[in-house]
Amino acid sequence: MRLFQKVWIVITCILALLLQTTSFFKEKLNSVIYERELYTNYLSIIKDTKQFHYDPELKFRAKPATNSYSQKLLLDANRDVITPGKENATIVMLVRNWELDQALQSMRSLEDRFNKKYRYPWTFLNDVPFDEEFIEATTLMASGTTEYGLIPSEDWDRPSWINETEFEQSIKEMTENKVLYGDSKSYRNMCRFNSGFFFKQKLLQKYEWYFRVEPSVEYYCDFNYDPFEVMRLNKKKYGFIISIHEYEETIPTLYDTVMDFIEENPQYLHPNNSMDFITDMDSLSNMHIRLDLSNDYNLCHYWSNFEIGNMDFFRSEPYQKFFEYLDKKGGFYYERWGDAPVHTLGVTLLMDKSEIHYFEDIGYFHAPFGNCPSSNALRLTKRCVCDADAESTIDIEEHSCLPRWWKVGGKTFLKDKGVF
What we know:
This protein is an alpha/beta fold. The protein has helices at residues 3-50, 100-118, 132-141, 153-156, 164-176, 185-196, 227-233, 254-264, 275-279, 311-315, 317-329, 331-334, 339-350, 376-381, 402-409; strands at residues 89-94, 122-126, 146-150, 209-212, 217-219, 238-240, 243-245, 300-302, 307-310, 356-358, 364-366, 369-371.
């Protein structure tokens, strides 16, 4: 190869190397410039963000042509703070050993939503001794203390003065007619016990307030307050959450028997009673239930599987005389009187209607019905997990008696009175 050809090849290689190096440095330089531009933009954004002042009041300002809440969302800043309850109260569950799983389900729900903050004691009642498995599991589930009571036979079993022939005939007829629990003897014992004996139990004598809990129930929302304290401060004695119509075939003579008692003992009828709630037959716009009944009772009752109440009312002379009168008539066995209508008739006639409270803000479910707060703001602040439009939500359905209660007791809530 000639000399000049070798020189040309060397020069060409050097030029190619220079061009490649230049391209590399040019790309690197462009990359650095780009990164600096990104950093400059980032600093600009941070600067603008620091200059923005968030005004929490703005979110409550009404927007044009929209519906908006004028009331602020009341966030519970202390929702996880433990503040042991100060009221003389207990949570009561009437339960069998074989219902342990259902009992734990209810306990877990109420503990998570309410009692883990207040640690009120649990009282369990049974007509047979609780076994070790039940005691161990429920003790560990409870945040407060637990006690286990054996119901005396005289408070639970069928009284000796009940006519067995008439009783068995009633069982036969209700079974043939497929009346709900019409074939159950133990269910009748339970209804009689809850109507007139639960508050007499030895373990409950030291308490003033009770919160009744059933197995297999669920609480949808946080309790942002102590309901026992709220009821005391507001001079309430009986709290409910669901009100529906009773099956007429289970209580055909109950109302007439109650009216006989009032006629014989007019001194016990409270002057500010809520009789209108149980006798109102007016048609409501959303109701199509026939109310052509055999007497003046519209069958409305407080669903007693949820109750928060003052046991001193049930221990009072008016209610004691009221229950004794009903008990002697034998309707708990010759028919199938439930404790829910018995409690309802006693409360509406013997108690001041201003002492009855509807807990509209507590979401609750007991198959097949439930309650879910209608206010979206309330559901959010109380961390509710429920659908206000679900089929199970009974609040204003045609088989609900709540609208009738609002006509009598008014539609005012404790939070509106500023006492929480």
